[in-house]
Write a structure and sequence with these properties.
Blueprint (H helix, E strand, L loop, with lengths): L4 H36 L17 H14 L13 H12 L1
Helix pairs in contact: 1-2, 1-3
Length: 97
């Protein structure tokens, strides 16, 4: 049991940040999966776009996907965007829900 109000607030803040990161990790993973799967279907996708993310390391592609997912919850923007119907539908679902 936490008796200090400051500690209680800090624990709640840490819990909220952790949940935000977990949700964004999940969304980033699905975004990356969609890019990979649509690439296998020979559709234009965000990984094979003009930025040539397919030439980058897995870590760079993951952090790019995580950056994309974080920008869906803020008024920020970034150069990664949907390039096919599947990616665009997922992006709309993330924004709406």
């Amino acid at each position: 049991r936490i008796d200090s109000e400051v500690m209680f607030i800090m624990m709640n803040v840490i819990k909220l940040i952790t949940m935000l990161l977990l949700v964004n990790h999940f969304l980033a993973s699905v975004w990356y999966l969609l890019g990979s799967l649509t690439g296998n279907m020979e559709l234009t996708n965000w990984i094979d776009s003009e930025e040539e993310f397919d030439q980058e390391s897995l870590g760079y592609r993951y952090t790019t996907a995580l950056h994309w997912s974080l920008t869906q919850f803020t008024p920020a923007s970034m150069s990664v965007q949907p390039h096919n119907v599947i990616e665009r539908t997922f992006a709309i679902m993330v924004l709406v829900f």
